[in-house]
Design a protein that fits this description.
Elements (H helix, E strand, L loop, with lengths): L1 E2 L5 E9 L9 E10 L5 E4 L9 E5 L2 E8 L5 E8 L6 E3 L4 E4 L4 E4 L1 E3 L5 E7 L11 E4 L5 E9 L4 E11 L4 E2 L18 E2 L10
Parallel strand pairs: 9-15
Antiparallel strand pairs: 1-7, 2-3, 3-5, 4-6, 6-7, 8-11, 10-13, 12-14, 14-15, 16-17
Length: about 200
């Protein structure tokens, strides 16, 4: 769109970069060359207050209209669409329901698989203290939820969590016979239980 008269602005060359990740505000639009018109020029993005500098940064993905206006009021605008990088996702798999003493393997799967990571933050910390490992094996003694926040080379982040629910076995043994003959062997009939059995309510 061109308005005004005299020496019109005939061209507007723009440099732009989309956001590196979805939701990240590191994109920019910059007018690098104005052809025609009468300097000095002022610049406006999406109807913002005009400014003398041609750079607009900290932008997210989306469609923008850049307008340049010269000293005598002639203006020209152009529409730019900033595309965001695709980012990545990670998956720690489904939650676990296990009997105490059962080993569990936790492994992060990245999509796409070619993602290069620069940071891994486990919470609680990785059982081996590893800061570059995407998985581990653990035998949990109680319920626990592990979360992972991963960052790639573009600064994009993805996260997931997995819960391990632990069931204590209720070990109970009821003898099928006893010999109350006073010889000190199997004279009493009683229910045997593991340490997780607090008491027997009834027989």
């Amino acid at each position: 769109v061109v308005s005004g008269s005299n020496d019109l602005i005939t061209g507007l060359q723009v440099d732009e970069k989309g956001a590196s990740c979805p939701g990240i505000t590191d994109g920019f639009i910059e007018a690098i060359l104005v052809t025609g018109g009468t300097p000095p020029f002022i610049y406006s993005l999406n109807g913002s207050l005009p400014q003398p500098t041609p750079l607009f940064d900290a932008l997210t993905s989306g469609q923008y209209t850049l307008q340049v206006t010269d000293a005598i009021g002639c203006s020209r605008d152009t529409t730019i669409t900033l595309q965001a990088g695709s980012g990545f996702t990670l998956d720690l798999g489904p939650d676990w329901n296990v009997i105490a003493g059962t080993p569990v393997a936790i492994q992060a799967t990245l999509y796409p698989g070619t993602t290069t990571l620069t940071s891994l933050i486990w919470n609680p910390i990785h059982p081996d203290g590893c800061t570059t490992c995407t998985g581990f094996a653990i035998t949990a003694a109680q319920d626990v939820t592990y979360s992972l926040i991963a960052t790639d080379v573009n600064g994009c982040q993805a996260s997931d969590e997995v819960t391990i629910r632990v069931t204590l076995p209720k070990r109970v043994y009821i003898p099928t016979a006893f010999s109350p003959n006073g010889d000190g062997l199997n004279d009493l009939f009683y229910v045997h239980g593991g340490p997780e059995v607090l008491r027997v309510k009834s027989i």
